[in-house]
Amino acid sequence: MTTQFDNVTVLKKGNVYFDGKCVSHTVIFADGTKKTLGVILPASLTFNTGAPEIMEINGGSCRVRLKGEEAWNTYAAGTTFDVPANSSFDIEVTETLDYVCHFG
Asked: pTM for the full model?
C-alpha cells in the first residue's frame, strides 16, 4: 500500500454522510480513475455501492458484514476488503477509521 498519491486532482467539496459520521474527499488520477480518502467515526452504518469497491484501512478498526452474508469480519490498519458492485455492507467502526476507497 502506498503512503501518498502523486499528480492528482483533489475535489475541494467534501462528501459528508450520516450526519458527519463519514467524511471523504474525491481524488482523481491522470487516467480518470477515482478514489476517496476519508474518515468514519465510531458508529454502525450501512453503505450501498454502485461500482465495485476495495476498502483499504489505513488506521482504526471495524467489523464488516457484506450483503447476504451472516458472518462479520474484523479489519484494521494494513488490511482491505472487497465489496461487489450494486451491493451493500454493514460496518461497525470501533475505533475512528482512516480509509481509502478504490472504485472499479
From this structure: 0.94
